[in-house]
Give the backbone structure.
Amino acid sequence: MQAAGLRVGHVLTAVVTMGSGLIIAIIFGWKLTLILSISVPFIAGATYQQNRILKKHQVQDARHMDVAGKVNNYIYF
């Protein structure tokens, strides 16, 4: 339950930071802000892909560690 609260906190922090940065950028340079805001979906997509890949490798690493633990038990017992 605490992990879900932590994740919500990180998402909320990211949204507030991005929103306030966008407002400040629009105030000081609205043309550049509009051009750069086009890249936001690409960055979000790349972050999503990176998280998927990391999760896949984390599952594989857990399987490898399980096999290594079984081999270690056979050696010592």
About this structure: The chain has a mean pLDDT of 84. The chain has one domain: 2-76.
